[in-house]
Amino acid sequence: HPFLLNTQTYTPRCYGITGPISEDLPHEADLIQTRKLIDSLKSYGVFEDDLELQHREKVVRRLEFLYKEWLKEMCFSLNIPESVTENVGGKVFPFGSYYMGAHSKGADIDALCVGPGFLERKDFFTSFYEKLRAQQEVKDIRVIEDAFVPVIKLSYDGIEIDLVFARVAQKSIPENLDLLDDKLLQNMDEHCVRSLNGYRVTEEIMRLVPNIFNFRLALRAVKLWAKRRNIYSNKLGFLGGISWAVLVARICQVYPNATVSTLVIKFFKVYSMW
């Protein structure tokens, strides 16, 4: 009906708890500034080349292979039925800045190992630790089990890795396991919930930004700024990686059509007034 068509109003998509501040489209000058920003980031060696990225992917695949192999070994040692052992699966989920595509050159990789409910947490920090320590590529491996989020830290073939562990109430871990399903958290112990949090938060952030490419570049720029001013560290009382990511993501939400250069400007303008 013509009358209905004329009275329809455009409702912008709301990515956060409030609508956008501005939906202005970028001007040519904004695009030029963004290209200059990218060139500046390159000059600081922020981006890895293709070989370095492929090496990271290879390391993650290798760790997942070792983890799945260890799960089957544990099944045999626990006399788990063969039908369960063959389908036990197992999955390693990268998270944090590497998973978001906003990691800097030489940065570590955070990864979550998800296992079945019949495992004990201590098995991961003893038996799997020993398996990793036996690998030729592994150096400087250590367990920090009394941390807020217990972790195995190691260097694998030159890449720093932080491994956390969570078990879910299932006999097998399929490749398509949805860790955002809140049902998985029911009756889960506190340490496993904390271990899951890193991946869940990273995934939620990526789903809640309007343009993932712009988000990644803006986050890289802000992180470079923070690191060069020595205020990038939650251990020292400043903001850590995930906190900076949340702040940048919110700016992306309220300026959904802005270019990267505009997002960085708005980041400092908005938060300077908080």
From TrEMBL:
Task: Indicate the segments annotated as coiled coil, or none if absent.
Answer: none
Q: Which InterPro entries match?
A: NT_sf, PolA_pol_cen_dom, PolA_pol_NTPase
Q: Which UniProt keywords apply?
A: ATP-binding, Magnesium, Metal-binding, mRNA processing, Nucleotide-binding, Nucleus, Transferase
Tell me where in this chain the Poly(A) polymerase nucleotidyltransferase domain is found: 16-209
Cellular component (GO) terms are: nucleus
- Co-factor requirement: Mg(2+); Mn(2+)
Q: List this protein's GO terms for biological process.
A: mRNA processing
Q: Where does the UniProt annotation locate this protein?
A: Nucleus
| Listed name of the protein | polynucleotide adenylyltransferase
What is the organism of origin for this protein?
A: Seriola dumerili (Greater amberjack)
